[in-house]
Amino acid sequence: MRDKHPVGVITRGTTGVNRLRRSDRWAVHSADVARALTDAVDPLVVDLGYGAMPVTTLELAARLRTVRTDLRMVGLEIDPERVVPDRDGVVFARGGFELAGLRPVLIRAFNVLRQYPEEAVPAAWERLRGGLAAGGLLIDGTCDELGRRCAWVLLDEHGPRSLTLAWNPFHVDVPSDLAERLPKALIHRNVPGERIHDLLRTADRAWAMSAPHAAFGPRVRWRVTLDLLRAHGVPVQQQRRRMRDCVLTVPWSAVEPR
């Protein structure tokens, strides 16, 4: 792997144990991710910008190996001082948006583009998508410091496919609380007239309407909320299994900036 002239800038590198567990759980049970991994001749996954510690890369490798046991995981960091020795079957190297010359079937870039200006997102997406293997996917996401509130965009070689919001049911009052953790492509679009603003407002109204179910806990209330959203025409994507998190996935067309 090349380690010269990586593309990008060094970011803060904040990380922590289990910080990305919600996106990991979603990825393990995503039909799209499973298809990409199982169909791949070389099941190479790149975790881009793993930060000051490699723990979330190791966690992702362990979880995705339940989908594909022969998966190859590479963690890339643009800061040479953060590159650690290989361990637990995971390779660590220096690299940025050029992916150190690799052609992965799955890229995860969490809390990376959040630290870039909004206008840098399209070019970064294009560069990363161009580095994917055939049928590959990119997950561009953000989360809070403890991983209780998360949001990510799933992209393929053609562009964005979906937006997912996921959160701890016991640490969020209303769905629009996720606005502060939207991916960079959307975080400045949460204003009247934009689709993401409409979605969050609609989710808040459905959450309020499901209040009679609060006595059964926030997970039950959220499942009722999802039914209400579907009844009101929101194209909520069905999850493959009932999840412990509150999760809302919609097609990119439902939130694409106007």
Any chance you could write out the topology, listing elements then pairs?
Blueprint: H1 21-28, H2 31-39, E1 44-48, H3 55-64, E2 72-77, E3 90-94, E4 106-110, H4 121-130, E5 137-143, E6 149-156, E7 159-167, H5 184-187, H6 195-209, H7 218-231, E8 246-251
Parallel strand pairs: 1-2, 1-4, 2-3, 4-5
Antiparallel strand pairs: 5-6, 6-7, 7-8
Helix pairs in contact: 1-3, 6-7
Concise summary:
This protein has helices at residues 21-28, 31-39, 55-64, 121-130, 184-187, 195-209, 218-231; strands spanning 44-48, 72-77, 90-94, 106-110, 137-143, 149-156, 159-167, 246-251.
Structure description:
- The protein is α/β, with parallel strands linked by helices.
- The chain has a single domain, classed as 3-Layer(aba) Sandwich (Rossmann fold).
- The chain is 27% helix and 20% strand.
- An 8-stranded mixed β-sheet has the order 3-2-1-4-5-6-7-8, sandwiched between helices.
- Helix 3 (55-64) links the parallel strand 1 (44-48) and strand 2.
- The radius of gyration is 18 Å and the shape is globular.
- The model has no long low-confidence stretch (mean pLDDT 94).
